[in-house]
């Protein structure tokens, strides 16, 4: 397993609680859209066992073409130890990056794609939408539905409706409105549905999609194959 120690080169305030931590991209480092990594801090591997409080799965919110590794996350006042350390990093400080993997690459099957997300989960979809905007080959259209009660919606420069690009973005602030809109989307029985959010959010969405007749293979979750079964169980 190769571990890259990458410098923090910028911090972008996306909203009052959400920041993107921008790390330098190692020369030989590559990834697909929709990838996540293990991000860890100094000392995580000094003992006999890894210190898991210093390691976290994080989605990469940038494309390889941007030549930076962006980590977009919510930082609350009662943040975990990991996020406290992340938030206190100074420009030039290093973090470890390893075990890159994607569960939600952009599928180019000529179908409509619906991206369902909650809050900062939208960061996982940012590179997929950018990849689509760069090359829309074999993707009919993309529609993003995101719920965020803060109303500080993320990436408005990317997630904006464009008829010319067959891209639509819909932000809602209540769960009732979200699930009402999500159910309408299931009228498209041949589409692909990507879902990103908390485990509870994933389960609720999968239940809705299955109830409306969307088959398992058309539902994409940001989970390893071994973890997906629990979300499709009754």
Automatic annotation (TrEMBL):
- State the InterPro entries in the record: FAD-bd_FR_type (IPR017927), FNR_nucleotide-bd (IPR039261), Riboflavin_synthase-like_b-brl (IPR017938)
Boundaries of each FAD-binding FR-type domain copy? 1-107
Gene Ontology MF terms in the entry: oxidoreductase activity
Note the superkingdom of the native organism.
Bacteria
Q: What is this protein called?
A: Ferredoxin--NADP+ reductase
Organism in which the protein naturally occurs: Jeotgalicoccus halotolerans
Q: What is the lineage of its organism?
A: Bacteria, Bacillati, Bacillota, Bacilli, Bacillales
